[in-house]
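Handout, page 2. Input:
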Amino acid sequence: MPDKAHRKRGDRRDGTWIKDVTGLQTVMMHLWPKRTDCEVYLNDTFDATELVKYIEKKNAEHPEFHTTMFHCIVTAVARMMHEREGMNRFIQGRRMYQKDEISLSFIAKRRFADYAEESLMVLVPKKTDTLDDVSKKIYGDVKKTRARSSAEGIDDVIDKFASLPRPILMFALFLIKRLDFFGMVPKALTEGDTHYTSVLLSNLGSIKCPSVYHHLANYGTNSFIITIGTLHKEEILMEDGHREVRDVIDIGATLDERIGDGFYFARSLKLIKHIMAHPELLDQPIGEPSGFDYNG
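Output:
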């Protein structure tokens, strides 16, 4: 990861300017400056059989603390982002930047009801964190969120902006988008905002929905969105040619194709699939190499 202490001309508060990009990427940044013009969507079915066994064993050994499928996927994604730094990039102001830290965001409902309030949550894992550390952070943050009686942090900022008269709100957001172009949006507005995280995860399986395509946004620095579907049984063809009913989960990913190519994206998702097939890797610090054979 870039060193925040050694900022150079052209760097942003949240990222280092990458100057050695390909000519194609430079042209694409000018021809298609909007992130929503450059979306690529990948969808795959992940074998979660070994991961289900791993979670069941872990929860049986430690019944006082409940590990979930979502916790495991978040940790797997964090491991992938550490190993594949090219996935932690963004384009803004027609320039490409490398993010200084890995941040994962998701939305938590305060109650499981149609019109229940939602809160934005951001997780910044350390290189030394394991699944247990990530699980405790998510569990603790969600518990605190659902215990709150009113919005705080970025939720409170959004509510205040929404209460402004329409002309003033339009002008204020116009200024913020211009500041966003130059990387000058105040930290008070970007901290805790999912638009400024490395990856946004949407756990649709928790509400019994399949993984779906989710659009990117032109505002902010988020270049990567993952949607997680419902865990279910499915007959799949194994490597030795026989068919077997396995636990599977559908995962969709929307990315900004300007930060990399399909080959790099596909390999990154294969790494997540590898981690899910070898869940013991989740007990290791996320900053450690996975040992995955990318040529296999």
